[in-house]
Amino acid sequence: MVLAGVALVQFGDSGVPAWRRLRAQDAELTREVDELVRRNEALSRDLKSLSEDRETLERLAREKAGMKRPEEAVLKVLPATDAEQTAGN
Question: Mean pLDDT for each consecutive 10-residue tract of the chain (89 residues)?
Fold first, then answer.
């Protein structure tokens, strides 16, 4: 009877295998939380930079959103098409 109880504790659904699975899951979740904390810190630095550094904000507005000042013109250089490349040779 005692041996059956010991076997159940060690090999049952809440025994050693379950404990090992939970430890592995805990380690994975800890790594995930650590990565999210690092990402959050980086995003906080970016946000602070954008709120305090007008040049960075302007550069990103130009690069990402295609914004310009009213007195500026934006010229885009497009790659040549196959027909244009063939005609130029």
Answer: 59 77 96 98 91 86 84 83 67
